[in-house]
Amino acid sequence: MHINKNKLAVYLLLSIFLVDTACAQTINKKNGKPKRNYALVLYAGGGFAGYTANINTQPIGLQTDIKRTSLCGTVRIMWHPNYRLRLGLESGYTNFYSYSLKNGNSSGKVNLRAIPILIVWSIKIVNRVNLFAGFGSYFLTTHLDYNGRVKSSTLSLGSNVALNYVQPISKKCGVAIEGKWFNAFQTKDNMVALQLQLVWKFLEY
Questions:
Q1: Which domains does the chain have, with CATH numbers?
Q2: At residue 28, does pLDDT exceed 60?
Q3: pTM strictly above 0.85
């Protein structure tokens, strides 16, 4: 029986989340004083990314100047409860790839852009080091500028995995360096990125 690895990862993270919650509640009951230390944390920043999959070029003329690297940005809001596993929502923007077209005297350009909308889980591995895993959709937009302009959009199921290190600069703020893998697995588009992010605990209750 074939098991989808991305769904398996999501189920595993959900199981860890439920177990971790139950353990935290049990500890609080034993102490007799339920401890609540919840927070909402914003991660925002950007960096450089490189497209790692095969490029499905347009069947028009000769493809040249293929560009696999681009800038990318991330915005993520995480809920930090008083246990290790966290839950949140992530979006951002990146250009997967672009290339030029040449056919006789005609020339043009194609690029593929992506906006992820993902539900994200994270867990603190050791102090200041966190692992993230997300699952959701990528909004993909292809721009073709060749004898006129054509824009087409599609939706792809996808995921991401990230690892970061956070250096605190105050009680509520920090700076993180994060390595990330974007994977729009339905359309077989993926890339790796290295980002610098601001980490801000904007609400604590």
A1: 35-204 (2.40.160.20)
A2: no
A3: no
